[in-house]
Amino acid sequence: MTYNVWFGEPYPKERMEAISRICLGEMPLVIGFQEVTPMLAPLLFPQMSDLGYKVLNQPGLNSYGVAIALHSTCTVVSSGFLEFRDSIMGRGLLWIHFRVDNVEILFSTTHLESFVPRFQGKKYDGAKEREAQVKQIETFCSKYIEKNPNLEAFILTGDLNWDDQSKKNLDKPLLSVLDKTEWKDAWLELKPGDDGYTYDAKESPMLGGYLRRRFDRCVATGTGNYSFSSAHLVGKEPLEGLIWQKQQQFGKKGKSVPVLPSDHYGLHVTLSHTNKDNED
Prior knowledge:
Layout: E1 2-4, H1 12-26, E2 30-34, H2 41-50, E3 53-57, E4 66-71, E5 75-83, E6 92-100, E7 103-111, E8 116-119, E9 122-124, H3 127-147, E10 151-159, H4 174-177, E11 183-185, H5 186-190, E12 199-200, E13 212-213, E14 216-221, E15 226-234, E16 243-246, E17 255-258, E18 266-273, E19 278-279
Helix pairs in contact: 1-2
């Protein structure tokens, strides 16, 4: 599972509780979180521990911090944080090599470079940096798999900020950039023709607007005997009884809106052995 938990200000305690309840209902083996701030970490991490997860976070959490929650049924082999060379935002890749039922998986999560309307006097779309970051991830992946031949799969998750769904795409198709090995995109494999927007300002009653993108993704390589068997979005329902007095931009009058667990939806994907029952 991957979930951008949103560094936004409204109801942090209630939203982290809601995300924990979602995780309890879904119970994935491993979860990648993004936008885990120093304020949100102490609200989210203890709840994940209570659900039976070991939590690993990047060094020095910031507004765009990433974390991984691994279920206690899994054994950690190794873990680390790869800092991106091409980032003005301190972005990187958090990864964990774990073993479950004698199967070894390399799971990772990231929050790639963001679009900034105004940076040092000009627009910063981050497209060049995102492509370089994806290339750096793929190089790391290839070298790690070469050194660890027992690995069954490398899984990349996160808020990739990837914009290849608009009329004026900022980014190339993701799988065309990941070109050193064969990669598979869970959503494209299982739901072709479904836009799969994980950020949907038009649908979300909390957001309002027009931006609709599949920013949050799960892709994998080296899967061998494994394939994606299910994928769905979570966290689409407002939290009961919570209203946010949202301030509008450009001098527009504020309005009251429902509160969702995050401004993004979570993405839950299952990877299954081709000759065995599902392994989540």
